[in-house]
Protein: Serine/threonine-protein phosphatase
Organism: Callorhinchus milii
Amino acid sequence: MAEVQSEAESLKSKANQCFKDKDYDNAIKYYSDAIELSAGNAIYYGNRSLAYLRTECYGYALSDATKAIDLDKKYIKGYYRRATANMALGKFKAALKDYDTVVKVKPNDKDAKMKYQECNKIVKQKAFERAIASDELKKSVVDSLDIESMTIEDDYTGPKLEEGQVTVQFMKDLMQWFKEQKKLHRKCAYQILVQVKDLLSKLPSLVEISLSQEESITVCGDIHGQYYDLLNIFELNGLPSKTNPYLFNGDFVDRGSFSVEVILTLFGFKLLCPQHFHLLRGNHETDNMNQMYGFEGEVKAKYTSQMFELFSEVFQWLPLAQCINSKVLVMHGGLFSEDGITLDDIKKIQRNRQPPDSGPMCDLLWSDPQPQNGRSVSKRGVSCQFGPDITNRFLEENHLEYIIRSHEVKPEGYEVAHNGKCITVFSAPNYCDQMGNQGSYIHLRGSDLKPTFHQFKTVPHPNVKPMAYANTLLQMGMM
Ligand SMILES: [Mn+2]
């Protein structure tokens, strides 16, 4: 017995070392081995919970933290971690309950008190938002803006739209301006937002495009506010244009601290080439995520909370999926929690809202593939995981060849799963300045629709750390 204990302890030390080295996958593996040997140890579950938090597996983090608390009611870290997982999932009331417990057990702990108050503030704010939302139909920020009368001060030397229009020259100047960490004038930012909202709101929830034999398209995955890596994609692969179309597959913002620069650049290109530059919604183009992971904070820091509200309205109009030549379906997350969903069902989704907790709209933004057949509970705690049989059936029923999705960091920047039928593409290299992964994008030619993969490494960025604008409850050291 003692030998088993010491074996388990040495696995824990090994796991702790991996965790320190930010090798979270191996940390999880060794904590799991320790749990195999000694299932009654709250700390093993608590530590594994933290590793799951770092890898965004909030569903698993939640259940490990709960298990740790079950094993040891006085294990304070368990409550902290469960609260963090719930915060990340937007379940603020559940998080508040755990912070409340911590405060009661440790009434003199200032940090606990601060977290309780911060969480309580969010819960109250959410309740307030719900109260006014049900009162009357929410008015658009657009109606309260008077863009015409906004003046651009004489000392502003940055790019301006030309007679209210985005041009190639404007886009080139804008990218350079942002590269130098300068701010686009708020009038121009509002012009872009109002125009792009109008444009996106006219698109269906499922966008269908066709490429001729000679045409091709570049599909990119998550960018997550890594503006300098986005510029690098354009360096490597050319600027977007009629002859160089792009599809960006969601999660443009959050985490990286240059999300404003990323999204205004992408929206600018959408206005410049509406038919050849495509954007799909990710799970981070949502209020809950933006509140926790930095985008809301960043927009407030660089502009105003009113502008964030307008961003939120625009995000709600981003299409949810795109079909290329009736053969390749692209979405941010993946397939569905139920069988029998058709392309027609996707078209019919009323997307102008925050995504619900379940159902097809939620699945498109949140689900992940898994290697084994069938479906299982999501490691993230939202939507589901789907196996190769689910993918096959969906493709057959909808006469498709394969799907492209994003949403998960991969060491190579991409991953081919489900016998080539489910491809992941991720375009944020060295994600969050710490994952060490490559980025990639995919070329698809109209002639054969075969995917070819292009990998790239991260480039330096100015010294503003990821998550700099995120909610303090989620900032790394504080979990
Ligand atoms: Mn995502």
Remarks:
- The mean pLDDT is 95.
- Residues 251, 282-284, 332, 407 surround manganese (II) ion (CB under 6 Å).
- The CA atoms of residues 37 and 371 lie 26 Å apart.
- The first helix runs from residue 2 to 20.
